[in-house]
Amino acid sequence: MDRERMIKLAYDRSFFLRTRNPEYLKGVRRFFQNLLGEDLGDGDITTNEILKDEKTKARIISNESGVLAGGEEFRWLYRENDISVKPLKKDGEFFERNETLFEIEGPKKRIFYLERTGLNILQRMSGVATETREIVEKVRKAGYELAITGTRKTPWGYLDKKAVTVGSGLSHRLGLWESFLVKDNHLDSLARQDVRNPIDFSLERAWESRKKTVFIEIEVKNAKEAMEAAGKFRELQTKSKEKKPCIIMLDNVRPEDIKKIIHSLKENGLYDHVLLEASGGVTKENILEYAKAGVDICSLGYLTHSTKSIDISQKMF
Q1: Are 257 and 223 in contact (CB under 8 A)?
Q2: How far apart are CA 109 and CA 57, in angstroms?
Q3: Which among 159, 194, 245, 288 has the fewest CB atoms less than 10 Å away?
Q4: pTM, 2 dp
Q5: Are residues 72 and 103 in the same domain?
Q6: What's the CA gap between 211 and 180, in Å, rounded?
Q7: What is the pLDDT of residues 179-195, one digit of tens each?
Q8: 301 shares a domain with 181
Q9: Is 157 helix (H, G, I), strand (E, B) or coil?
Q10: CA 51 from chain center: how many Å?
Q11: Interhelix angle for 22-40 vs 71-80, to 10°?
Q12: DSSP strand pairing (275-279 vs 297-299)
């Protein structure tokens, strides 16, 4: 198995997460409509009452350092509202405190209308990208090839996934429609339905529909389940003579136990038939323990559900 190629095939969604993709843009447009609908409502009563609607300029300025993300979406939103945007930094670039990220020019009232929504986009997405980049760089500097990916714990949906990607991470499923991921609750439900072997049953059903999915993944909790799943994946691949990213998610399994599982997979000729993902309890502080254990991917939900935003502001001039 070409592990690097399979990881990219399974987890790289950069081709999708861009505004020139109609499906992504549809999600972005809907997201902005909701944000602006709640914030603007029937109108900005303060701005409408005290300001003239004349042309003006403003700068978007960083109040702390970080990695820029959300710039593409920010530019799209402002240009849709007849505000010109001059980017001084690109998505994925590092910025220092007090740097100007964008210069904007347009109708004063519209600039005030969009200010909070625009800044929220940049602040949150840059925060996610910054945290992701720090973890990726930590792993690389230690000499490991471990891939870092987000999860579906994404309050901001596609935009959260885009921010992880900008930070040099990868993306998990875009949604339930995209790929098979058999979780413990699926297996427990099958067991309650008196299915004799839930792992075999679920993977056989997934394999029958493999042309509909980017990857097939199953969540396991211990070495026995991991060996069983890997054996089934090998059987299915051998019978069909087809290659498809087949992933075992080691959920809340300690690094020392992961190392033993990988050793057993290699001893039994199963390692080359699967990718191994560690999930649950993985943090920036312990990420190198998982890298040393030998997994291919670590998925970190906190990147999108708990990361701190970067402080960014708007100044008129």
Answers
A1: yes
A2: 11
A3: 194
A4: 0.94
A5: yes
A6: 11
A7: 999 999 999 999 999 99
A8: yes
A9: coil
A10: 40
A11: 70
A12: parallel
